[in-house]
């Protein structure tokens, strides 16, 4: 949506457009009332407007198109139907002579990039398919008389980075291709080399701004430049007008339109004084330079000499740069008020954490170090982009500290603690290398790309092992039921989830599915079931078993003969998180479980104070988020599982599924921590020490986590305020603020506080104390 705004209006979208872009149902950002080249073409009345492809066009321009068929762009697993729905209209429309504008917005390349990156095995075949479409259109332009004067523009609305994402500031993401095609363009005599050597910066024949498309179309097709345009006419087309006076008039028309925006932005007074005689000794601001240069152009205009053309071009690009780089008009009083509220919340969080945790002061030192280091890091764009390194190293350092502390105590239990911490560090190292995330090394070698994507059999052996582990845990967790019912429920639910994942991957990336995994679909006797039906079967099954487990806990009965109901609920959530995770990430839960077993078993289960256990949970929640492929870029929001079981867009269902899909590992560790807290409570009660207050234990844990959340909010808000004029404020710091909101409201308030609180309370009720 934001890039389509730039292409059609010539203006620069706001950051709010990026946020609204995530809501597929949003219609508040319609461009129906704005001046665009689409509106100008419709006003010409020389033909109809038709559109096929991404339905974002229909939402941005309601009532504009005379013939259209939209396709949702958010089902990123579809590589073929989204394009076939466009292509089936092409041949017929090329025969029609009643239209003056036809938009074909293909989605397959975008979807392949999101799913497999620019080097996906699907990419070459799809590019050749697009070559065929371009050839088909151009052949019609040469052979059909009504298309002889047609201009064919092929462009991308965005690019992608090496990981297949877009939305940040890397060269690959901000360098989409643009090609103008028409038989008449041969008159320009541009003999360009093709192919050309690969350039990592994507600077090939020439570079223009995306907004330059609007005034260029206006000149070539003969309509006024959209009034909010910040683009400059692409000067390569000026030779179409052999008369120098015509070229000057075209450029001045573009310049006058942008001058109106300069006046509206800075006020008319900047053109009323002469900065050359204002007595200022320091260099004039950019806008004064614009005024000065404009006066010079106005004085020379009328001469229509060739030397005026580069001067106008220079003014256009300078104005474009000044207006395009301007920050928003910030309400500083509100920013400072929000900052003050955040600081107040931090002070309250510190007091609450100290009073509720009832722990020794030394237990808070590591947490304080994490908060301080994290806060400092938020003021550097590179650290924000590569935040995952902070959590990986902080988690490793924490486990190393615990191991050294145990070793120094010298007794057998302490030495076992050192061995346990060593195992935790090794598991963390493997987790760290699973997915290469961040900005600078996105798409680099990692375990997934090097070993799993190239060896589907190994991938599905690990995936199968994970589901077998879940099956074993579920059988154990439902052992209080009759054995026939226990195995029927556990086997049926796990098999449904596993075959859904196989069927989903077979549609999404068939090259990743091993032959024995395909065989599982035939064994399950559900070959003809749709993905929606499969996903709904899993969700309904999980909901029913969760309800039964919860009822048993309310009745103070154990649904398992050997473990608590909370452990069974954790197993059920694990199956949900596997359903919402990419198949390559599923084996990570084996590593998470290994770390959980070490942390919940002696000697570590008794070596950590309450504050230290909460600190461990904090570190593991964040490390898991990045290990599963998360970053601080909006581009990395994984929508691949957001539509599991959803037949049409529903903001609530898709929102929840999107959150679970992206924070699956973090939610798992949040719930696993509460299981460990319940185990500690039960052990304390069994040892005659008392289990501690129900509310007090929950409040102490939440207090420690809230301390970090409040500190992180203060740091991120302060960084965004202090760096509001920074070059990367919209591509790095503002997205980080959105992630901060998601962490604070979604992961902390909803998961850690509300869901975790109910989870812990159910465990206490089950224990009957």
Automatic annotation (TrEMBL):
<comment type="similarity">
    <text>Belongs to the PIGG/PIGN/PIGO family. PIGG subfamily.</text>
</comment>
<keyword id="KW-0256">Endoplasmic reticulum</keyword>
<dbReference type="GO" id="GO:0006506">
    <property type="term" value="P:GPI anchor biosynthetic process"/>
</dbReference>
<keyword id="KW-0808">Transferase</keyword>
<keyword id="KW-0325">Glycoprotein</keyword>
<dbReference type="InterPro" id="IPR002591">
    <property type="entry name" value="Phosphodiest/P_Trfase"/>
</dbReference>
<keyword id="KW-0812">Transmembrane</keyword>
<feature type="transmembrane region" description="Helical">
    <location>
        <begin position="531"/>
        <end position="554"/>
    </location>
</feature>
<feature type="transmembrane region" description="Helical">
    <location>
        <begin position="702"/>
        <end position="725"/>
    </location>
</feature>
<keyword id="KW-0472">Membrane</keyword>
<feature type="transmembrane region" description="Helical">
    <location>
        <begin position="737"/>
        <end position="762"/>
    </location>
</feature>
<keyword id="KW-0337">GPI-anchor biosynthesis</keyword>
<feature type="transmembrane region" description="Helical">
    <location>
        <begin position="361"/>
        <end position="384"/>
    </location>
</feature>
<dbReference type="InterPro" id="IPR045687">
    <property type="entry name" value="PIGG/GPI7_C"/>
</dbReference>
<feature type="transmembrane region" description="Helical">
    <location>
        <begin position="390"/>
        <end position="407"/>
    </location>
</feature>
<feature type="transmembrane region" description="Helical">
    <location>
        <begin position="335"/>
        <end position="354"/>
    </location>
</feature>
<feature type="domain" description="GPI ethanolamine phosphate transferase 2 C-terminal">
    <location>
        <begin position="327"/>
        <end position="763"/>
    </location>
</feature>
<dbReference type="GO" id="GO:0005789">
    <property type="term" value="C:endoplasmic reticulum membrane"/>
</dbReference>
<comment type="function">
    <text>Ethanolamine phosphate transferase involved in glycosylphosphatidylinositol-anchor biosynthesis. Transfers ethanolamine phosphate to the GPI second mannose.</text>
</comment>
<dbReference type="GO" id="GO:0051267">
    <property type="term" value="F:CP2 mannose-ethanolamine phosphotransferase activity"/>
</dbReference>
<comment type="pathway">
    <text>Glycolipid biosynthesis; glycosylphosphatidylinositol-anchor biosynthesis.</text>
</comment>
<dbReference type="InterPro" id="IPR017850">
    <property type="entry name" value="Alkaline_phosphatase_core_sf"/>
</dbReference>
<protein>
    <recommendedName>
        <fullName>GPI ethanolamine phosphate transferase 2</fullName>
    </recommendedName>
</protein>
<dbReference type="Pfam" id="PF19316">
    <property type="entry name" value="PIGO_PIGG"/>
</dbReference>
<dbReference type="Pfam" id="PF01663">
    <property type="entry name" value="Phosphodiest"/>
</dbReference>
<feature type="transmembrane region" description="Helical">
    <location>
        <begin position="651"/>
        <end position="671"/>
    </location>
</feature>
<dbReference type="InterPro" id="IPR039527">
    <property type="entry name" value="PIGG/GPI7"/>
</dbReference>
<dbReference type="InterPro" id="IPR037674">
    <property type="entry name" value="PIG-G_N"/>
</dbReference>
<keyword id="KW-1133">Transmembrane helix</keyword>
<feature type="transmembrane region" description="Helical">
    <location>
        <begin position="482"/>
        <end position="504"/>
    </location>
</feature>
